[in-house]
Write a structure and sequence with these properties.
Length: 255
């Protein structure tokens, strides 16, 4: 299968290892991974902030970059960006686009997946040959949980990882408090939600808190580092990419 990899803004600027791990993992499973060089932001942050007309050029570019018929699937290590492409792009195209944009958006929407749902639903794979001998807890991000409804797919993948000690996160489905500009505009509320999330992470005794969205990991990880909890954050793709022959070296978190 020829897979178009979408890096996402946070992946490109702050979490490149999550993007690299996605590419390595998919290639290890026998697929041809391509990276359209003209890709840019999906436009999610504009839409979420109320600017629906402004991202039209971004939506058009996304459809053009990934609409090539030779690309069988578009995969990204982000539930929020996958949710934007599958839901918001159609709304923008219908309201502000032309016939060509609507057609392009529909084509790309039909073949766009968040990483865990692509592995489980499309490739029918839960055991991807991963090895990660550490205690891990999983935070299900809001967009993946509520918009994409990936459900147990990330957990099914984690449970199949060799030597992992997977522990349940209390109140796992509670938002971490990031929400993009929500964390800036409603800082006090965001911080209170983050404190609840960090407290629940601490009860697990996990060395790693993982998730499928770098934005949540940035928020949670920032908080955990400031309180020197000893728990670090790591993208799901990085855990799934780790093998016995090429294990992920877990750096000790600040204490």
């Amino acid at each position: 299968m020829r897979i178009g990899l979408f890096a996402t803004c946070l992946g490109d600027t702050l979490f490149p290892e999550a993007v690299k791990s996605t590419a390595v993992l998919l290639a290890r499973l026998g697929h041809d991974v391509v990276f359209p060089p003209g890709q840019t932001c999906c436009g999610q942050m504009h839409v979420n902030t109320g600017y629906q007309r402004e991202p039209v050029p971004l939506v058009r570019n996304f459809a053009e970059q990934f609409g090539d018929a030779s690309i069988d699937a578009v995969v990204m290590p982000s539930g929020s960006c996958a949710g934007s492409v599958r839901h918001q792009h159609e709304i923008i195209a219908e309201r502000y686009g032309d016939a060509a944009l609507r057609s392009g958006v529909a084509t790309v929407k039909a073949k766009t997946y968040e990483l865990s749902e692509f592995l489980v639903d499309v490739l029918d794979a839960t055991d991807v040959g991963a090895y990660f001998p550490h205690r891990v807890t999983y935070h299900p991000t809001c967009h993946s949980l509520r918009m994409l409804r990936v459900g147990e797919k990330p957990l099914r993948l984690l449970r199949a990882v060799d030597s992992i000690d997977l522990v349940e996160l209390p109140e796992a489905d509670a938002c971490c408090g990031f929400g993009g500009t929500f964390a800036v505009k409603n800082a006090d509320t965001s911080t209170a939600m983050l404190q609840d999330k960090m407290r629940n992470v601490a009860t697990t005794g996990a060395a790693v808190c993982t998730a499928g969205d770098s934005s949540c990991l940035m928020h949670i990880g920032g908080g955990l580092s400031r309180i020197k909890s000893g728990t670090r954050t790591l993208h799901l793709a990085q855990i799934l990419c780790s093998t016995r022959t090429a294990p992920h070296v877990l750096m000790e978190a600040a204490r």
